[in-house]
Amino acid sequence: MTAWTRTRSAESGARAGRRRAALVALLAGAVLLTGCGAGAQSDGTSADGAQRRADGAPAPVPPDGGGRVAEGDRDDTADGTQGEEDRDAAPAPDLVSTFALDVDTASYGYARRTLAAGRLPDPGSVRPEEFVNSFRQDYPRPEGNGFSVTVDGARVERGDGGDWSLMRVGLATRPSSRTAERPPAALTFVVDISGSMAEPGRLDLVKESLGILTDQLRDDDSLAVVTFSDEAETRLPMTRLAGNRDRVHEVVASLEPTDSTNVEAGVSTGYDVAVEGRRRGANNRVVLLSDALANTGETEADAILERIGSARKEFGITLFGVGVGSEYGDQLMERLTNRGDGHTTYVSTPAQARKVFVDQLPAHIELRAREAKAQVVFDPVTVREFRLVGYENRHVGNEDFRDDRVDGGEVGPGHAVTALYAVRLKEGAAGHVATATVRWLDPRTRAPHEATGTVGADRLDGDLWARGTPPRLQISAAAAYFAQRLRGAETPGAPRLGELAERAEGLARRTEDASVRQLAESIRGADRLLD
Question: What is the distance between the alpha carbons of residues 506 and 369, in angstroms, rounded to a whole number?
C-alpha cells in the first residue's frame, strides 16, 4: 500500500463505464497538514479500510505515493482518450475524503520510548495522526455537546501547474467543567501479569496507575479487576467504590508477574465480567493494561476482535487500551481498541500515568459522541489534487458517511482531532477550496448531528514557517513531517530532520511547552540514528 489513504468514489461506477478501469479502491497518500491564518469554523448541534499483510499487520508504507487528481486534470490524448499507459488506470475519483475520527496517541508515545532507547521504531507502528493528536491544540470549543469545526492552512511549495498547501481540519469537543456532571462509570480493568510485565516500567507502573485511579473515582463509580497470564482470573467482581476503596487497593497491591501472555483469555474474561456487572445509565468500559505481546492461547487478532465486536454492539461496552513496556505489541492493541470503539494511549513514566488517569480521566470514561465520522469535500474548480496524512485504518466509504450503522469513532469531552491534508491548488485558484463536515450520534439518544466548516484559497496562501503563523499549527506540521520521515514517506515541503528539530526547538521556546521540547529531542535522536 502506498502512503496515500485509500478511499472510494461514490460515482466511480459511472466513470468506469466511460473508461476501461473498473477499480473502486484508490491509492491515496500520506502528507500532512497544518495552516496559517484564521480559518472558517462552525459548531452546529442539529473502519478499517487499510491494506494489510497476511498476518493482519498494516502493510509497509513506501515512500512517495500517488495523489488524487481532479477529473478535468487527467492527461488525455488529443482525441479525448487516455494514453496507452493510463488506459487501465483507476478512474479519477471525486475530490472527497471520509474517515472515522480517532483520538489515539499510543503510536507517538511508543516511538518516543523506542528512540530514547537508541532504536528506530518499526515503520508499521508509526501512525502520523497519532503524532499530531498528541499535542495540545487551540481550536475554539462548542457551547453544546457537539463539535466545533476549524479549517485553515498554509503554503509549503510553489511550482508550475499549481501550489502545494497544507490544510488542517480541526474538530474539538467541549471539556467537562466538573466530574460530577458525568454519569457514573463501571470500569473493568484487565491487567496483564505475564512474565514480561516484570520489567521496570510495566506492572509496577500499572499498579501505581490503578492506585491513582482508585482514589480519583467517585463513590458511585464501580470497578472490577481481571488479571491474565497463561489464564485469566477475576480478582474483583464489579464493586461500588463507596466503602470499598481499601479493598480495591489491596487487590491491586497483590498483583505479581507470573507466566506467559494470553491476551485472548484476559479480554474474553474481562468482557464477561463487564457484561455481568453492566450498569444501565453508566459509562461501561473495559480498560486493558498490557504490553500486548500475546504468546499463549489465541494470538491472532481476528478471533479476539470478534468477541469485542459482539459485546460492543449488544451492550455498548467500549475498550480503552493503555500500553506499557519497551517492547510493546502496538499493532495488536490498535486493532483491538478500534474494534472496541475505543482508543489507545501509551505510558512509560509515573508522570504520564498521572496525566492519563488524573488529568484526562473524564475524557477516557465519558463520551461526547458515538460513531463520529468526518468528510472533506474539495472544490474541483480550485483543487487539482489532495493527499491525506495517516488514518489508513480509519477509512470509511464516501457513500457510508451518513449511514449510522457503519462504525465511526468515539470521542470524549475536551478532545481535539486533527486531519492533515496536502492540497495542490490550480494555478490562479481563488475562492472556495473545501468544506469539512463532522457527523456523530448523541451518546444517550443516538440522534444524529452534524457541524460544518469551510476554507478559501486566501486562507492557504501564507507561508507555513512565517513568524505570524500560529505556533500550534506549526507544531502540527512538525509532528506530521517527523512521523512521515520515520515511516519512509515523502511529503511536499518536508525539511530535513535537522532543520525540523531546530524549528521544533524554536517552537518549544515560544510556547514554553515541555511536550514540544520532547518532540525536538525525539527528532534529534531519529536524525542521529538515520544519519
Answer: 36
